[in-house]
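Appendix B. Worked example

We walk through a single record from start to finish. Start with the input: the chain for Nucleotide-diphospho-sugar transferase, Rhodofomes roseus, length 370.
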Amino acid sequence: MSYFSRYRDYTPLWSDTSKPTPRRYVFIALALLAASAALNIVLYNKLSHRWQVPLDNYQEINVQPIVDPKLADSMSHPNPQENAIVTSLYTDSYATAIATLGHSLNRVNTTASRLLFYLPEKISPRALCIATSTGFVPHPISRIPPPRGGKGVFWKFMDQYSKLNIWTLSDSGIKAAVYLDADTLVLRNFDELFSLPYNFAAVPDVYVDGQGWSLSFNAGVLYLRPSRAVFEDMLSKIATASYNMHEAEQSFLNHYYGAEALRLPYAYNANLAIKSRKPEVWADVKREARIVHYTLVKPFLEEEDNSGKKVVEMRRMESNVQSKMGQYGGLFQEEMQDWVEVWRDTRRTFADALLECGSHSATPPSPDSS
Ligand SMILES: *[C@@H]1O[C@H](CO)[C@@H](O)[C@H](O)[C@H]1NC(C)=O
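Next comes the structure step. The output line below is what the pipeline stores for this chain.
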């Protein structure tokens, strides 16, 4: 019999058998540490993210217009030979959105020329017809593939590097261009942008999560002075520069122009995320908004469309928008109404052209036929 087994039963009364062993102490210490870390994270989110920047404490104390109307009138107006508005079509499901965007530009009397960048191998004749029915001129482009075979790039952004083709418009004499994502809608004229002397301008991004008001810009609306030399320079760097591949060209452009971009007011890229983040800021931005960016909800896309490729037929568009009204607790009803109102006007004004598009093929050309 060993010493221990002999004395196992001899336990003094004051010795509590449930007394934590050193191992238990370690466990309790770790649990306390984890609880304290969790509490810190919660408090950090609550305190620091609720009071991050003045925009989170927004008050409408400045009611001046963002552009002096007299000054804007006296500026030279866009010349269609030298100024262009560009959007892009990478999948058929955005064709009606672009028709609506085009008509929203008609409604504010835009005089710059309008170009629709599209990937000929991906877009059906019908979608191209619809997208160009209200003023955009088709402009086929070559796809710029994401570097390293797209490794790490979010699948929805695989074609997004093609956007860089805007810089090549200097070849056709374009001196200033405004790029608009296909999920934008124009509410007011933004001609003043074409008079900017800067090479590049964009609007700071907004996130609904803890990141909130960002210093990096959103690439959905860009102002730029096209330059073939800059284009070549960018292409030579997309694969070697260090940036977040997930966000594709947006992240690259933020690294390329991070310190040189002119930051524009939110009115030029009124991203729905602003409303979700801080309705008071949205109310003020909306008063002057030139361009609304339908980031969080896209009225023209199928409700459960994760592929982004299902096409909502024109006759189903209004009911599609209706079905999306309740998203985000109905937060964007007014903006959805704005969009559907312009869509209705588009369909009315361009009824014949849109009807004619129905006779075009709804499948992209096969690679052999091109
Ligand atoms: C656009 O031009 C038309 C015709 O000149 C004019 O009636 C209309 O008020 C203008 N619209 C805007 C938004 O300036």
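Two observations about the output. The domain at 83-357 is CATH 3.90.550.10 (Spore Coat Polysaccharide Biosynthesis Protein SpsA; Chain A). Confidence is low (pLDDT under 50) at residues 1-8.
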